[in-house]
Amino acid sequence: MTRPIIGIIGNRALLNDQYPVHAGGTMNSDAVASVCGCMPLLIPADPTYVSVPELMRTCDGFLFTGGRANVHPEEYGEEATQAHGAFDRARDAITLPLIRACVEAGQPILGICRGFQEVNVAMGGSLYPEIRDLPGRMNHRMPPDGTLEEKFERRHVVTFSEGGVFHHLMGAAQVMTNTLHGQGIKVQGPRIVVDGHADDGTPEAIYIEKAPGFTLAVQWHPEWDAANDPVSRPLFAAFGRAAKAWAEGRQVTPAQVA
């Protein structure tokens, strides 16, 4: 039986500090294959190679991954500063219009970290360049030292809106998550619903109001140990069911696949 195809947005990287590649973390592919039950397909996020219509015809859903490069602030009407870090304008040129097109078509999307921020920007929102510099905010960045397990360790609580989409999906009003991001939502887009926050007020879980399909995004990294983590598994499982429905010609919302 043919599995639904999840397009995984790739990132630019250098192999051996010399050879340019489009790369994707294997834990993203693991989550798509083992938990979603779908076929992972790595997408070179560059309009030189792919177009939004081609991608939407090829894939049944899209995973907007994390990445070192940040969304360029020109995309939300601000000037770039040193605090904004590195950029990937080619990825911006694919992901932002792809998100908008998927939202309107009802095609499933799941945003993670940078992908979470891309969803907000695509829908008209803006970002803070550095969350840890804001009064009362914790440092959400990846710990600089330690093993991979220690870097992805659950470090803070996310509280969901009572009776909201994520509460229903997770079966819990509060969950523990990892945290590995520097930027975060400043102004939410007009249709963005913030459905979960960290204890310091940082938005951590969003969906798009009145979207006809599956449009969830989270600021943490659920791809880590997705098959076993009690927070990650229901998120990817629901995403997989939404992609299967799309492959069968149906649109479903998160509530319908929870």
Mean pLDDT: 94
Oligomer: single chain
Overall shape: it is globular
- Provide the β-strand percentage band: 15-25%
Helix content: 25-40%
**Largest sheet report:** 9 strands, mixed
Determine the CATH topology: Rossmann fold
Number of helices: 8
Q: What series of H and E elements makes up the topology?
A: EEEHEHEHEHEHEHEEEEEHH
- Please list the strands of the largest sheet in the order they lie side by side: 4-1-5-6-13-12-11-8-9
Parts with pLDDT < 50 across at least 5 consecutive residues: none
Radius of gyration: 17 Å
- Helix/strand class: alpha/beta
Quick one: CATH class?
Alpha Beta
Provide a brief overview of the structure.
With 258 residues, the protein is α/β, with parallel strands linked by helices.
List the helices and strands and how they pair.
Layout: E1 5-9, E2 11-15, E3 19-23, H1 26-36, E4 39-43, H2 52-58, E5 61-64, H3 89-105, E6 109-112, H4 114-122, E7 126-128, H5 148-151, E8 156-160, H6 165-170, E9 174-177, E10 184-187, E11 192-198, E12 203-208, E13 215-218, H7 232-247, H8 254-257
Parallel strand pairs: 1-4, 1-5, 5-6, 6-13
Antiparallel strand pairs: 2-3, 7-10, 8-9, 8-11, 11-12, 12-13
Helix pairs in contact: 1-7, 2-3, 3-4
